[in-house]
Amino acid sequence: MRGGGSALQPIAPADGPPAVVGMIPEELIAPGPDRLYRLVDRVLGNVLDELSQPALNERWGCYIATTKGDIEALGSADPDRVRLPYLADHIQRKAGFAKRPWIISNACASGTSAIAVAGAAIARGHIDHAILLGVDLLSRFVLRGFQALHAVSEAPCTPFDAARDGTSLGEACAAVVLTNDPHILPNKLGTFLSGSIAHDANHISGPSRTGEGLVRAIHGACNKAQITASDIHAINAHGTGTDYNDGMESIAFERCELSAVPMSGYKGWFGHTLGAAGVLETILALEALNNGWVLRNEGLVNVGVPGKVNALLKDERASGDLLLKTSSGFGGCNAAILLQAWKA
Amino acid sequence: MEGMRILSTTTYRNGRFTVDGKELASSTGDIDQDLTNAWAAMKVELPRFVRMDRNSKLVSIAAAPFFTAEGIITKYPKDRIGMVIMGTHGSMETDQRYLDQLLAENHASPGLFVYTLPNIAMGELSIQHGLHGSGLCLLSEAPDVGQLRDACEILLRDHDMEAVICGWANIFAGSAVATFMVVTTGKEGNWDNDELERIFNEHG
């Protein structure tokens, strides 16, 4: 991401308006009806190969973050696969979890919510380790819906830019292990400190104008970890590229006295990956910090949001290791987590 | 050691609606009529009800008795009330309606699309009653009492909630069932996994 540019590319569907989207390359996962399950199997397989303690007994939890799962199977010959719990059962069988995996579907805040819940479950002693998996694929179902809401940009999305005019949809499957025993992991990304979820109680498909839920989520996470705004070194925002979302976030960050903190959203690179976004973007933001960087907002030229923010136009050297990750979604759901990079 | 306490329970089974064992509405056999009748039996304002999808209606009704003037939840601050909602099919019925229209007319309805997420029912609940608290929308093949308990405990003890509206709601293929409760912490816990399994199995 440091050297390269956006991976977003134009598509021209036969039956709908054109769009710019982020797709997983065919050489990584071939097209076909069970694409979601093959992708999940592959990512899960990579995680299990890395673990030195592969027996997934009752001390292991699994938290799956998704909004639409295998929605493309709706109306197909095998509609059972659309049911989100079907994915949980598939993963339990495939990986051999003793406990039934959780499916967390908090709209576009699913991934960040799942990390917040898994972190609390380990802190509480419910479990010792967890595999977190976020997954959502591109679908006509979701693309046409976002287009109907006038939320999709015709060019690659440019979060926090004055000229932004919508998001770009993407797809991803991302997984990470959370554990109280770091010895079981060969590669360490960071330490989970705290998490919080809050609701706007305002509108089902638009964020609160005042950022109410996000402010509450950020304060909740900070209070729990006894961290103040001045301790935070980087913000990885939701940054969808829509007028309302990015405006709301900027107001919330200013209200939380985070205006000076280097801030970026990653959707200009690969699009909005919905339920996977929180897991994917947290991994990448921690990886960047571990290499000493806070990455830019790809595509951002002129910052134009109502709240005062330090939205990065260029990659910047990190001044520390403390990351705030936020996500917001339909239903007025907001999630915030605090993490410390491992080596920054 | 404080325990998990269940303060009040509502059940809805295809129109038959009970609050702490007392029947408020009975079944007519028509899924939409039943939801509307149960709504009418409530002494609580639900101005958004008429525009909701069925899943949101079911969740709103199942939780409504907690919010009446004498309801159990009114003594808690609204930013300290959390929500944990679980179901099998989530928004699948609305997903199908949205897709049918998309395929038949090549028209994506924005009004239907916003209801094609299972957590929208939780969002409606939060808007209806001004709840700013934490919330989790979970999906499971069958009611998972262990996950519900862990989720409530996390909201009550880690997310600073004082009470959690916790429930199972499922609407699909002409069947609508829900079991909702108010969960808090108290000196004597009464959360009994076996008893809850029995209630969920009996009432769906």
Concise structural overview:
Chain A is α/β, with parallel strands linked by helices. Chain A has helices at residues 35-50, 84-95, 110-123, 140-148, 212-225, 243-255, 267-270, 277-290, and strands at residues 9-11, 19-22, 60-65, 102-104, 129-136, 169-170, 172-179, 190-199, 234-236, 262-264, 293-294, 310-311, 316-317, 322-329, 333-341. Chain A has a single domain, classed as Thiolase/Chalcone synthase (Peroxisomal Thiolase, Chain A, domain 1), CATH 3.40.47.
Please, could you describe this protein's structure?
The complex is a heterodimer of chains A (344) and B (204). Chain A has helices spanning 35-50, 84-95, 110-123, 140-148, 212-225, 243-255, 267-270, 277-290; strands spanning 9-11, 19-22, 60-65, 102-104, 129-136, 169-170, 172-179, 190-199, 234-236, 262-264, 293-294, 310-311, 316-317, 322-329, 333-341. Chain A is α/β, with parallel strands linked by helices and 344 residues long. Chain A has a single domain, classed as 3-Layer(aba) Sandwich (Peroxisomal Thiolase, Chain A, domain 1), CATH 3.40.47.10. In chain A, the strands form 4 sheets. Chain A has a 6-stranded mixed β-sheet with strand order 8-15-14-9-10-12. Chain A has a 4-stranded mixed β-sheet with strand order 4-3-5-7, with helices on both faces. In chain A, α3 packs across α8. Chain A is globular. Chain B has 204 residues and is of the alpha/beta class. Chain B has one domain (3-203): 3-Layer(aba) Sandwich (Peroxisomal Thiolase, Chain A, domain 1). Chain B contains 7 helices and 7 strands; from the N terminus they run βββααβαααβαββα. A 7-stranded mixed β-sheet of chain B has the order 3-2-1-7-6-4-5, sandwiched between helices. In chain B, α1 packs parallel to α2 (54-63) and α2 (54-63) packs across α5 (120-129). The chains are: A alpha/beta (344), B alpha/beta (204). The interface between A and B is large, with 57 and 54 residues. β4 of chain A pairs antiparallel with β5 of chain B.
